[in-house]
Amino acid sequence: MKRLTDVLFDALLPLLAASLALLVGAVFLMVMRVNPLTAYAALVEGAFGTPNAVAETLVKATPLLLVGLGICIAFQANVINIGGEGQMIVGAILGTLVGLTFTDWPGWVVIPLAMLTGFVGGALWGGIPGVLKAYFNVNEILSTVMMNAIAVQIMNYLLRGPMIDPVQKAMASEIPQTAALEMAFRLPRWVPTRLHLGTLLAVVLAVVVHVFLWHTVWGYRIRAVGKNPDASRYAGIPVKRYTVLALLLSGAFAGLAGVVQVYGVNYRMITDGSASGFTGNAGFNGIVAALFGGLHPLGTVPASVLFGALLVGANKMQRAVQVPSALVIALNGLVVVFVVSSEYWRRRRQRRRMALQREAEAPRPVQETAAASSASGGQD
Amino acid sequence: MEGLLEKVLSLSVLLGMLTSGIRLATPYLYAAIGETFGQRSGVLNLGVEGQMLMGAFAAFYVTWRTGNLLLGLLAAVVVGALMGLAMAVVTVNLHAEQGISGIGFYLFGLGMSDLLFQKLLGTVRTVEPFPDLPIPLLSDIPLLGPVFFRHNVLVYAAYLLVPLAWFVLNKTTLGLNIRSVGENPEAADSLGISVARVRYFTIILGGVLSGIAGAALSVGLLGVFQQNMTSGLGFIAVALVYFGAWRPLGVLAGALIFSLVNAMQLWVQVLGVPIPSELAVMMPYILTIVVLVLTVSRARPPSALTKPFEREA
C-alpha cells in the first residue's frame, strides 16, 4: 500500500522534469532574443486555443499513444524498442494494401481487416528483432534501428514503383504516393475537425493494455521477465518466448498506429524519402510519451496529449515568434533526459522508506519468490 | 548484361570503390572508437547520433563564419565534449538508464542542430572541405597510391586512431583501469580506482570523437550541413562496436566492410546497374544485422555494460 505522499511524489516528479526542460528551453529562447513567455503562450494557444486546435492536438497525440502503448509493454519486459518508425511504416504499407486491393468490399469489413493486417505487419517487424535478441543475443536497440532503415527503403521502393498512384504514374512528376482510399474506408471524423475514430480506439486500447499487463497471466509473466529474468526462468517461465512476445506486441501497436494514420488522417501513403516524412517522428516521440507516462498505459494517455500539444503548438510558435518548431524535438530530448535522471530521487526515496520500514517492523519471513514479489511490486 | 558486369568489375571502378570506401569509413571510425572506450568502461552511449549532428553543425558553422577549418574542428571538439559531459553527469552521478538517456540526447541533438541550422544558416550553404593531402612518394605508387595516400588529414587521423586506441586500451594503465571498471567496478573500486573518474573520461572522450566524426562528415567529406545529415550513421557506429566485439581492430574491420558495401552501392547506382536503388541502399543495413547475428552471439560484452556503479554505503 502506497501512501498518498508517495503517489503525489511519483506524479509530480515527471512534471518537475518537464518544467525543467521548458526552463532550459526558455534560456535557448532568450539567447535567440525571443521572449519565452510570448513563445510559450503562442504554443499553448496553438495547442488548446480553439476547439479545432484541441482536435489537432488529439490527432497528433493518437499515434504517440498507440506507439507508446507498445513501448510500455516492451519496457515492462525490459526491452528497448526504438523501431517504432519502421514498425509504423510496415503496418501502414500492409494496411494500405488491404484498402487498395478490396475496393468493392464494405468499409466495416475493410477497416478492421486493414487494422488487423497492420497490427500483424508491425508485429512481424518488431518480432524479428525479438527473435534476434532472444535466440541470437543481438542487442534489440541496434537491430530495431537497422529495421527502421530497411522499412524506409521498402516504403520508398513500393511508393515509387509497384504501389504508385496510377494517376501519378501517368504524369511526368510521378509524386511517390499511393492512390487515395475509397471514401467508405475513411475513419469517421468529428466534422469540421480532423479528429477521427482512431483516437477513441487508442484510448480504449490503453485500458486493454492495462488489463493485459496487470490482470492476465501473460502480462504478469512479461513483467516478471522484465524485473528478474533469472528468477523467472527458475519459476518455469519461458523467458525467451516472452521477450519475443513483448517485442512482437510492441511492434504490433506501432503498426496499428501506422494504419490509423493512413485511414484516419492522410487517406493515402506518401513519402519524402525519409521515415519522419510519414511518421512525423511518432516512433520516437511515442517513447517519450510512454516514459513520461511512467511506462504505464493509462499514464501514457495524458502524456501523449501533452506531447501532441507540444507538437501542434510548436507550429503556432514558429509563426508567432519565428522560432523553428525543431525546438520542440530538442525539448522532447531534454524531457527524456530529465525524466530518466529524476528516477534517481525516486529510488533514493524508496530506499529510505524501505530502510525505515525494516527498522519499524520485526524481521519477517519472505513468502514469495523474488520474481513474484518484485513483479507485483510494480502494481499500484 | 555481360558488358555491364565487365564495367562494374573493371579495375578503375574497383579502385574507385576502394577509395570512396576508405573515405566513407572515417566518420564511423571516430564515432565507433569513441563508443568502444565508453562501452569498455561499462557505459553504453546511444546519443552518438545527436553528438555527431551537433559536432557536424558546429564545425560547419564556425568554418563558414571564419573560413578556418581548424577552428571549425575545434568547435566540434568543444561541443562534443560538452554533450559528453552532460551524458556523464546523467549516467554516472544520477545512475540514469543509459539506453534511454542516450535516446534523449539523440533527440536533443537532432532538434538542436536543426534549430540552429534554420536560425543561423537559413539555407544549405557550402564551404571548401579539408583539402586532400597527398603523402609524398607513397601517393605516387601506381594504382594503390591514390587509393590509400590521397586523402585529407581527417581520414589519415581516423586510421591512426585505431592502433592508438588499441595501444591505450591494452598496453597502458589507463586502458587497464578502463577495462577493469567495465568488467568489475566493485573490484576496481576496492583497488582505489575511481570508477566515476574513469567513466567521466571515457564518456567525454566518446563525445569528443563523435563531435569529430560529425566534423569529418560536414567539413571533411562533404562541405555542407543539412538537417539530420547523419541519418542513422551514429547508430550504425554503435552497432559496429558490437560487430567488432569491443576491439578497435574489429571495429576497423566492421567500418571498412560497411563503408565498402556502401561505396559499392553508390557505384552500382552511378553505373546504372538495373537493381532498385532502394534495395542497394538497404543492403548495408541487412548486412549489419546478418553480421551481428553471426558475430555477437560469440563475443561477450563487458560485464558491467549499462550497469550504473554505486558504492555500497
Structure overview:
- By secondary structure, chain A is mainly alpha-helical.
- Chain A has a single domain (4-376), classed as ABC transporter involved in vitamin B12 uptake, BtuC (Orthogonal Bundle).
- Chain A contains 16 helices and no strands.
- Chain B has 313 residues and is an all-alpha fold.
- In chain B, 73% of the residues lie in helices and 0% in strands.
- Chain B has 13 helices and no strands.
- Chain B has helices at 2-9, 11-40, 48-66, 69-93, 98-121, 144-149, 153-171, 173-183, 185-190, 195-222, 233-243, 248-270, 277-296.
- The longest helix of chain B has 30 residues, at 11-40.
- Chain B is globular, with a radius of gyration of 20 Å.
- At the A-B interface, helix 6, helix 13 and helix 15 of A face helix 5, helix 11 and helix 13 of B.
- N-to-C CA distance of chain A: 8 Å
Number of domains of chain A: 1
Q: Based on helices, strands and strand pairing, what is the structural class of chain B?
A: mainly alpha
Q: Greatest contact pair? A: A-B, 49 and 47 residues
- Assign the CATH class of chain A: Mainly Alpha
Find the structural class of chain A using helix and strand composition. mainly alpha
Mean pLDDT value of chain B: 89
Largest sheet of chain A: none
Percent strand of chain A: under 5%
Order of helices and strands of chain A: HHHHHHHHHHHHHHHH
| Helical amount of chain B | over 70%
Largest sheet of chain B: none
**Radius of gyration of chain B over all CA atoms, rounded:** 20 Å
Oligomer: heterodimer
